[in-house]
User: Which sequence fits this backbone?
């Protein structure tokens, strides 16, 4: 890839081509937990915080009625920092001259002005639409003269609050390399390889520690065993209205194959199976060009999510109130060479594989230099996604509609999406996995749908990895 294209795909700030595309999509800005005084005692006194998204600075606050406001952070009077504003019952007041703004951005008081002044009626700070879904506040940062698209009806947002749990963390790298790790079907057999399998009875909420659906001769296999013993997946993908549906087959015997179906929801979300009954929907949201927040939504298709069991180990891995990871480049991500020899392929712990992904993403550098990479056949999904990203940036730059969940015309076609991790008959695995997800959805207490749409839908042109050049590089030039 040429350096100019790498820059075009990774820049997120205002008026950059990539940033203008991402502003057409609803973006997570904060967990509701961040306003919980139990987790952040300061919120009991002053429910307001600075947030940075897409290279811009904002202030997020809650008034006495429980309404949230997301405003530009610089006061429209003379530019003082509203993140230090006084939170009052009906708005946020700038301490510089007392100007006060409600959650819509309307100025409602300019107390230093002469009595009878109507100046405040003509002042409005830019505010941004907010939607609360599954324990997260989402903002929309598109042009003021445009209407936000409908909020996507993905499973993690369609399920009730009792059946979802959300968490987040900060990574010190560009959002695109983080997302590309998430949609890479091959890395799980290596980066997340465990030399010993844990108890299936202690797998709740732990990625790859649960059992794959199905069995081998009546024996339940942990996902870790499948990933460890079958490290050459056959990867394919199909275009869907939401982006790409990914399939990784790991042939086991003449009669059995492991099938893992995941999804890339364009432009920055992936959906993967956590277990037979739970999925992870993870979004990588740019803070700026060199940092991103991951927001993970866990969705249960059976009973309610045990939120405390999910939250406790994840809280132990971050520093509050900013959700910064306790491991990172500063301490070599907790690397243990003895562990690498005896317990895990990477040597960075067995309890939280999120650290594995963090290392893969951050160790590439703040912004991966894609001019130096050499792509192989297992990178076909990465290549396809980059082309979709390039095409979408071009479309928005030319005045067109951003694709996928930002396109209102596709809203009714985008649901789910379906995932599976299981051991299937080598002949007829397609029917097996479709029946598995159909049964799971029919049994879900919150799902009203009784059928699963599994036929290919061409939302984007099918893209295949181009052959490597003699230097071993694959260029993505559109």
Assistant:
């Amino acid at each position: 890839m040429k350096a100019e294209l790498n820059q075009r795909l990774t820049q997120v700030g205002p008026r950059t081509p990539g940033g203008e595309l991402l502003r057409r999509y609803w973006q997570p800005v904060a967990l509701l937990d961040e306003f919980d005084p139990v987790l952040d005692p300061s919120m009991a006194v002053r429910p307001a915080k600075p947030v940075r998204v897409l290279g811009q600075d904002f202030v997020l606050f809650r008034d006495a009625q429980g309404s949230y406001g997301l405003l530009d952070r610089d006061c429209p009077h003379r530019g003082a920092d509203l993140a230090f504003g006084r939170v009052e019952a009906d708005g946020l007041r700038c301490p510089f001259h007392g100007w006060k703004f409600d959650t819509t951005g309307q100025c409602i008081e300019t107390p230093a002005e002469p009595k009878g002044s109507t100046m405040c009626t003509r002042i409005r700070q830019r505010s941004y639409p907010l939607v609360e879904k599954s324990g997260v506040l989402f903002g929309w940062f598109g042009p003021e003269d445009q209407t936000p698209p409908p909020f996507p009806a993905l499973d993690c947002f369609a399920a009730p609050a009792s059946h979802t749990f959300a968490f987040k963390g900060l990574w010190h790298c560009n959002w695109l390399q983080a997302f590309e790790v998430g949609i890479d079907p091959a890395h799980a057999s290596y980066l997340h390889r465990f030399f010993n399998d844990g108890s299936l009875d202690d797998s709740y909420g732990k990625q790859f520690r649960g059992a794959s659906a199905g069995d081998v001769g009546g024996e339940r296999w942990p996902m870790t065993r499948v990933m460890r013993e079958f490290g050459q997946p056959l990867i394919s993908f199909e275009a869907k209205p939401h982006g790409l549906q990914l399939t990784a087959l790991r042939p086991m015997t003449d009669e059995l194959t492991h099938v893992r179906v995941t999804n890339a929801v364009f432009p920055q979300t992936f959906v993967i199976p956590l277990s037979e009954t739970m999925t992870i929907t993870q979004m990588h949201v740019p803070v700026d060009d060199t940092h991103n927040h991951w927001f993970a939504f866990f969705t249960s298709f059976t009973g309610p999510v045990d939120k405390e069991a999910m939250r406790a180990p994840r809280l132990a891995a971050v520093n509050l109130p900013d959700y910064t990871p306790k491991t990172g480049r500063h301490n070599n991500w907790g690397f243990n060479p003895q562990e690498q020899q005896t317990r895990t392929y990477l040597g960075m712990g067995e309890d939280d594989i999120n650290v594995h992904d963090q290392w893969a993403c951050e160790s590439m550098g703040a912004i991966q230099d894609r001019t130096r990479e050499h792509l192989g056949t297992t990178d076909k999904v990465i290549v396809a996604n980059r082309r979709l990203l390039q095409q979408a940036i071009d479309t928005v730059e030319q005045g067109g509609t951003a694709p996928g969940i930002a396109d209102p015309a596709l809203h009714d076609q985008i649901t789910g999406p379906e995932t599976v991790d299981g051991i299937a008959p080598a002949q007829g695995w397609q029917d097996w996995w479709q029946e598995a997800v159909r049964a799971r959805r029919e049994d879900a207490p919150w799902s009203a749908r009784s059928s699963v749409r599994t036929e290919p839908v061409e939302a984007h042109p099918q893209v295949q990895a181009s052959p490597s050049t003699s230097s071993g590089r694959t260029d993505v030039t559109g």
